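User: Predict the structure for this protein chain, please.
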Amino acid sequence: MLKLLRRLLILTAVILFVCVGSILNTGWARYRRAIEEMPLKTAVDAVRASRNYVPFDQIDRDYVNAVVAVEDKRFFSRSGFDYAALVRAMINNFRQGKAIEGGSTIPQQTAKNLYFIGRGKTRGVPEKVAEVFLMYDMEEQYTKQDILALYAALNYYGDGYWGLDHASRGYYGVPSSDLTIAQSAMLAGIPNAPSVYQLSSGYDLALSRQRRVLSNMRREGYLSEEDYQEALNEDVHARSGEESSDALLQ
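Assistant: Here is the predicted structure, written as structure tokens:
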């Protein structure tokens, strides 16, 4: 019986090894094809030349803290793949019986938006593996500040707003450098599911998501209790359509 069990364990290990090897191989091939079609520098330069892009120093620091707190807590201190975040997400999802969080880092999400999201593009397991390889390239060639600016510019914030500055002006009538804590937390939460959280139709759900972002910011030490309570009480409804249109023209 023990001999049979040992053989089954060895067979399972071999199958697992072959499957993982196959997944890595197909992911590597997808990564190579992606950068051959568009080198990383070309892709990044195209984003930087777009109207949606603003450099890191023009992004409100509260937004930066909000994104890091909710999406990638060790973003500025970690390099490479975040295995701890992946394991934590798997445990939390198992406990809840559904997918409530992912293990993707900010660089992985940036790679996804840079290469694998858009009209006519498909994203499966090979693409997800390719994103990890692209993440390492990105972290080698660009600073964390560069990557976060790309992340902010590439995200969709619902209601037709692409990029943080576009959303900031459209929703709140201010540039991305002048957001309040509450507004920053709101916008940091929307890209998780833009069609669900866009403010025109999903304000209540977006507000619930914002509360989670603010709680994370408080827990990670980005907010004092006073600032946290003040942000909870701030009205973060979007401006009227006419006000938003005027702000976008400025």
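The radius of gyration is 20 Å.
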